[in-house]
Amino acid sequence: MNENGTNGSNGHGVIEPAAEPAIENVIIIGSGPSGLTAGLYTARANLNPLLITGNEIGGQVAITYEVENYPGFPESLSGPELVEKMQKQAEKFGCRVEYDYVDRVDFEQFPYTVHTANEMEYKAKAIIISTGASSRKLDVPGENELTGRGVSYCATCDGFFFRGREVVVVGGGDSAAEEAIFLTRFASKVTLIHRRDSLRASPILQKRVFEHDKINIIWDTVVTSINDDDGKGGVTSVSLRNVKTGLASTLLTGGVFVFVGHFPNSHLFEGKVAMDEEGYLVTDKLMRTNIPGVFAAGEIQDKRFKQVATSVGQGCAAAMEVEKYLADLEDRSYPGYAALKAPAAATVTASKKF
Questions:
Q1: Is the dihedral of CA 286, 290, 296, 299 positive or negative?
Q2: Does one domain contain both 193 and 252?
Q3: What is the pTM of this model?
Q4: Looking at the structure, do residues 110 and 164 belong to the same domain, yes or no?
Q5: Claim to verify: residue 64 and residue 118 sit in the same structural domain
Q6: Are 148 and 218 contained in the same domain?
Q7: Are 117 and 266 in the same domain?
Q8: What is the dihedral of CA 30, 36, 37, 38, to 10 degrees?
Q9: Which residue among 100, 106, 154, 328 is the active-site one?
Q10: Is the same domain home to 303 and 231?
Q11: What is the CATH number of the domain that holds 203?
C-alpha cells in the first residue's frame, strides 16, 4: 500500500494497476560453477543478467574442502574460496545476484516467467538452468532420523564435530575417497564401506586411501541400517551385509558420512523441459533444451563428467549461445547461427517423477 493506505491509488480514488515486471534479457537459475560462469559471460556481453542463487550459493563445490584439479590454481584452494572468487568476478562485470529460490517457472508463454519463494516474479527472454545435483541417500532405516545426529553428507561441514571418534564413509567414488581422507584430520579411524571389490575413484585418490594408516576398507558390503542403540538420539553403529556371502554384521561407529552419488535437481522442470529417464535435462551441443531460449549447463544436464572444469565450460557455452539467441530475436543474427525464431512451448519428450 502507499502512504494513504490504498493499493496503487492515483490520489483520486482510482486504483492503478500494478506495474508489470521488467523483462530481463536472461535469468540464470542456480549459482554453482556453471551458473556463476554464465553470469560472468552474459554480464561481459552487456546483457545485465540476473542470477537467482537457490538455497545455497556455489552448489556442491561450496562444501568441498579442497579443489586440486581446477586449472590455474596449482597450490589448490578450498571450494568456498573458489566460489567466492567466481562470484566476485561475475559481479564485477555487472551480474546481479539475488539470494532467493525459484519455486515455479512458466515456459509456455514468451517472455518466460520465473517465480521465487520470496514471492518475486520475473520475466525473461532467455533462461539458463544451472540447478545442479544433490547427494543421494542410502534409504535405510535410521538414516533420516539420525541425519544431523551422526549422519552427514558433507565431511567439510561436519568433520570437526567427530574429533577423536571412529567414523564410517559409504561409497567408492572420488567424493567418498576425498572425504575419507579429509576426515582423517579429525577422526581416530575411518572405515570406508563399498559395495564392490574395487574403488571407482581416480588412481591418485585410491593410492592416498590405500596408503593412509587411518583408513580401513570393507569390500563387497552394504549398510542395511544406521542405529541408535542406546536411544540417546545419536549414531552408535551400522548394520552391514556382505553382498557376496549374505553374512550380516554390526560395526560400532560414531558417525556415518554418505557419498553414493547424486541426482539432478530437476523436479522444478518436470513436464516443462525434456529430460532423460534419470531426470537429467536433455540438451544439444549448444546447451539448448527443447524449449527455445531455455538453456541448461552443469550437472543438471551432465551425468558423465561432473567436474568443476566441465561445468564452467558448459556455463560459458550456454552464455555465449544465449547472446547469439537474443541477437537473433532482435534481427541481428550471427552469420551461420541456427536461430530458434519463435519461442513457444515444445513437447516434453521424456520426464521422470521424483
A1: negative
A2: yes
A3: 0.80
A4: no
A5: yes
A6: yes
A7: yes
A8: 50
A9: 154
A10: no
A11: 3.50.50.60
pLDDT digits (tens, 9 = 90+) for 327-352: 988 876 655 544 444 333 334 444 33
Q: How would residue 4 be classed by pLDDT, with cut points 50, 70 and 90?
A: very low
pLDDT score of 335: 53
Is 154 part of the annotated catalytic residue set? Answer: yes
Whether 235 maps to a domain, the answer reads yes
Last residue of a domain, one of 235, 258, 281: 258
Active site residue 157: yes
Q: Are residues 231 and 282 in the same domain?
A: no
pLDDT tens by residue, 102-140? 999 999 999 999 999 999 999 999 999 999 999 899 999
Say which of 103, 106, 139, 158 is annotated catalytic. Answer: 158
Q: Which of 103, 157, 229, 284 is catalytic?
A: 157
Same domain, yes or no, for 162 and 302? no
Question: For residue 78, is it within any domain?
Answer: yes
Domain that holds residue 235: 143-258
